[in-house]
Amino acid sequence: HFLFVQKPPGAPYGQIAMSDADRGEVRVLTDDPGMKNDPGLFNAPEFGGELLLVCNVDNSALAIYRDEKKDGKSPWKRIATLALPDDAPYRFISSPETIASATGVGGVSYFSLLARENKERNSRGSIWVLGLGSDEKNRFARRVDDGASSTVLEPEPFVGKNEVYVYFNAYNSLTRENGLRRAATGIKVEAARELTGASAGTR
Length: 203
Known about the structure:
203 residues, mainly beta, 5-stranded mixed sheet, 15 strands, 0% helix
């Protein structure tokens, strides 16, 4: 399946659609307000491995959708909105990536992302990991870069043997140093269920 943003003529924003190349069919999956991009499908352990949709809405939050009617034609329902904590210094979300999209980690679906000061590529930013989980009042949200770099780009998650990491490109305007960085998320591969809440992380 191929996901893309389909914008009807005259509409203020597009919706996420899915193309079935084998059948030559297109199905619109969302119908709620908000400018959407960066769509992805993942198997959610919170729902027994059921296939869910995640996308970036208004560059301010990740929205999670579920095919509740399962009739092959109705739009999927938004079941969760994952946002940055209120005290996050930068709030323009881009480059979301699902971590272990086929399985999740320790029973939880996690997503890495870049949060920038604004839409400019080289504006100041930070690297975050957000989690879906089963408790909507106590969702995982953690900044994982150390704040030393003025510009961070292209976060890519990696599930190691014992822990989840996020690799990203970084540039320090004071030292003029740039290079690849690895951030430890604190998400242990065998004990990820125990991690909840929001806290700062270190590289």
